[in-house]
Amino acid sequence: MAGSPARILIIGAGPAGLRAAEMLAEAGCSPILIDEAPRVGGQIYRQPPRVPGFTRTASELYGAAADRARDLFVTFDRIRQRIDYRPSSLVYDLIDNRAIVASEGKSEEIAFDAMILATGAMDRIIPAPGWTLPGVYTLGAAQIALKHQGCAIGKRIAFVGGGPLLLLAAHQYAKAGAVPAAIVLPSRFESLAAAGLRLLPMPRELSSGLLWLLDLKRRGVPVLFGHRLVKVKGAESVTGIIAERAGRQRVIACDAVALGYGLRSETQLADLAGIRFVFDAERRQWLPETDPLGRAAGRKDIYLAGDGAGILGADAAEARGRLAAHALMTDLGIAHERYRPKPDKTAVACAERLQAAMRAAFDPPADLVTAIPDETILCRCERILAGELRALAGLLGAREVNRAKSFSRIGMGRCQGRLCGHAAAEILAGKLGISLDSVGRLRGQPPIKPVIVSTVAERKA
Amino acid sequence: MSGPRLQRVADQDRRLIEITVDGWAMSAMEGDTLLVAILAQRSYLREASGEPQGEMPAAGFCLMGACQDCWVWHEDGRRVRACTTYAEPGMRIRTTWPDHLLAS
Ligand SMILES: Cc1cc2nc3c(=O)[nH]c(=O)nc-3n(C[C@H](O)[C@@H](O)[C@H](O)COP(=O)(O)OP(=O)(O)OC[C@H]3O[C@@H](n4cnc5c(N)ncnc54)[C@H](O)[C@@H]3O)c2cc1C
Ligand code: FES
Predict the structure, then answer these.
(1) Would you place residue A1 in the very low, low, confident or very high pLDDT band (cuts 50, 70, 90)?
(2) Is A17 within a domain?
(3) Is A198 exposed, middle or buried (0-12, 13-18, 19+ CB in 10 A)?
(4) Is B2 within the bounds of a domain?
(5) B66 vs A144: CB contact, 8 Å cut-off?
(6) Are A386 and A191 in contact (CB under 8 A)?
């Protein structure tokens, strides 16, 4: 095996990062694989802690995706000794060709010749009155509690939002004995049915979606299509939700809410790396620009793979991980004859069609965000109300999110706008009557997640 | 709301460990995050502080280290995220900034 002395960094050990690591290891390279989680798998194949008593099998944890999960874990075990795997390590800044990594209270700089960013995604949140009450969690949190800790987020849980993951998670909860109080989706049944027709050539995806829905129906879970979340009720904790359709309100008693309107790419590191961003009108998000294999625009040494470069799902993430590694090796002149990119390109194209259908089925109506009442907390870190942002719009030239940010502190809190940034941009655009892309985008700032002060101080120069 | 917020539904046959939270002994299961250990027994990580612009009650939100809603403290003042830190035997945790450090 030829290999290469080049220092290759992969950030993220989900399906995308793991497949990239596999390709590189097979070609004789030993990339550094960094993930802030303590075990590999990423979000979809998140594993319980390595502690006796966690006994659920892959089938119990990952359902229909169990085979893919097992295959990834076996692959990782096979390459483990040939790569430099660094779990529980957070990359919190990028400076030129150095990644700044915090791990066990210490900070370290790792220089790289080439880097693959495979940082994944998190939930898209649309605030509603009461969404900051204890008991409201992201849909992702509901899944993590169950997969990683064997816990449900409450006794009676309302699942609110959209996307296939909402139905999947509700189904997983029901199977675990935590039967949901209700499923509330702003999308109408008709759009779901129409998307279903577009999925006829993809019977596997279609049938799993139908199966989750039918299973929920069979268990008597109310599935409320075309309903908007009016508010989460409760004084100090969730006691219920109010959902509305065509002026008719429905109250659902619950002690927890799983909230998520699909996913958004985690792009902070790509931003710090100075990669060029383009506005994706379909996903209504600014995304790092790449070529079809994942080469980043504006940085010759950086590649992107997986949901961090636009949501296409877990299977496509594996394909995109291999494609990015392939591009990297081609560019660095590392020999890897056996790989043929065609099947992976086909898988990505297929995922594009699937995601387009999912967006048509589940994307919330635009005015769901723009109509958020003034008194709703928009930014939970700095406790800024939607009305405060609206009042700022247009004032002092706050026509651009970063300006609005310096005036209102929106997006400057601990989460760096991960939760509110997109809603803030939609609200500004709505108030000013301009398109979302002309509002601009919130820029990332180091550290992309808070690190303990002593960690930063101990950074080796 | 009082009583446990999170409900254990699987993998419950684990070794029990003892931690101390706000001065109270609490048992957790090995492999619990601090957030799970605490919220499997009570409703909040932090209670509301009472003042209108004071601390809002908190019980975490994202469970993936992104929202920063779940910070708690070791008794020596070190801050940790409850959703990404595992409970370990003998850990002494404060869900508010430890009083004795205020004086110093
Ligand atoms: C909570 C959650 C649950 C999901 N569950 C499912 C599911 O059940 N089924 C499904 O089909 N899809 C699921 N998804 C969708 C998911 O995005 C998958 O499509 C898939 O996990 C994407 O793979 P990936 O490799 O691109 O990213 P991920 O699997 O998200 O992996 C990214 C990895 O990068 C790490 N990382 C990110 N930033 C940094 C950093 N700065 N420093 C160090 N490490 C970093 C993360 O810890 C993570 O392990 C879920 C998404 C989320 C957010
Ligand atoms: S709950 Fe969001 S960071 Fe811990």
Answers:
(1) very low
(2) yes
(3) middle
(4) no
(5) no
(6) no
Q: Are residues A60 and A14 in the same domain?
A: yes
Domain that holds residue A410: 377-439
Task: Pick the closest to residue B4 from A366, A392, A255, A334 (CA basis).
Answer: A255
| Shortest distance, CA B23 to any CA of chain A (angstroms) | 23
Q: What is the domain-level CATH number for residue A399?
A: 1.10.10
Domain that holds residue B44: 20-98
Pick the residue from chain B with its C-alpha nearest to A52.
Answer: B14
Tokens of A261: 């309107």
According to the per-residue pLDDT averaged within each range, which of A56-60, A197-201, B56-60 is highest? Answer: A56-60
Q: B-chain residues within 8 Å CB-CB of A52?
A: 14-15, 30
- Rounded Cα–Cα distance for residues A355 and A327 (Å): 24
Query: What is the domain count for chain B?
Result: 1
Is there a contact between A157 and A173 (Cβ–Cβ < 8 Å)? yes
**CB < 8 Å to A176, chain B:** 9-10
CA A51/CA A150 separation, integer angstroms: 13
What global pTM score does this model have?
0.95
Nearest chain B residue to A235, by CA: B1
Judged on CB neighbours under 10 Å (0-12, 13-18, 19+), A225 is middle
Which amino acid residue places its CA nearest to atom 37 of ligand 1?
A119
| Domain-located, residue B48 | yes
